[in-house]
Every structure is written in structure tokens, then in C-alpha cells.
Amino acid sequence: xxxxxxxxxxxxxxxxxxxxxxxxxxxxxxxxxxxxxxxxxxxxxxxxxxxxxxxxxxxxxxxxxxxxxxxxxxxxxxxxxxxxxxxxxxxxxxxxxxxxxxxxxxxxxxxxxxxxxxxxxxxxxxxxxxxxxxxx
Length: 136
Hints:
Layout: E1 11-17, E2 20-29, H1 31-45, E3 53-65, H2 68-82, E4 85-91, H3 96-105, E5 114-118, H4 121-129
Parallel strand pairs: 2-3, 3-4, 4-5
Antiparallel strand pairs: 1-2
Helix pairs in contact: 1-2
């Protein structure tokens, strides 16, 4: 997890394995955290942009963020789709609020991108594997 500083609220971890970018979001975010996450996400994903890739994000402990976070994340989603993301699995746990919020921010730009919401990690990984996105 990236250590927060005085200007950041909330935490995240982002990495990639094989052809999947893995992200874990925690806490309530401000715009500084969202910008740092976007930068770090792009840095990790840049290793995969030559081909199509998948994404799994764990939102179980994410408390969302201030209103300005939405635009930053929407811009990141557009960058991802423009750079080869074809399938995203959102693991939301039992939170209906997080599920609804994630659906508002992440939506299909066109036919090349598909998103699914899951309450269980294994179901999310199974779904990604159906499209040849697997962890090693």
C-alpha cells in the first residue's frame, strides 16, 4: 500500500501479474489520493498496454471519496480502455453502496470493454480467466 502523507486520505495498492492489473482500494479518498492512484495505476499498466489486459479491483474496504474523485477515476477508466483494458472485475463484498458507486464511475465506453461486479474474489478470477486473463 502506498503510504499516505499529510495531503492524502485513504490507501491503495496497485500491481500487475501476468496480464491482469490488481488494485486494492481502502479508506475514504480525497483528490490527492485519487491523482496518486491514477499515476501509479498507469505506471503499472504501462507494462501491459501492448496487448489486451484485464483488471481486478478490490473495493470491499473502500469508503469512496470526495466529489472531485469521480472525474479523476472516470479519466483513468477512459485511459485504461484506450490502452487495452477489455475486462474489469470489481469485488465489492457486501456493500450495495460501493457496488452502485462503482457502476456510476465505470461504464462501458463501447463494445470493447466489459465490467462485472462480484461479491466473491474467486468468482471474479474465474470470470476473468474465461477471457484468458489469469494470475500466475
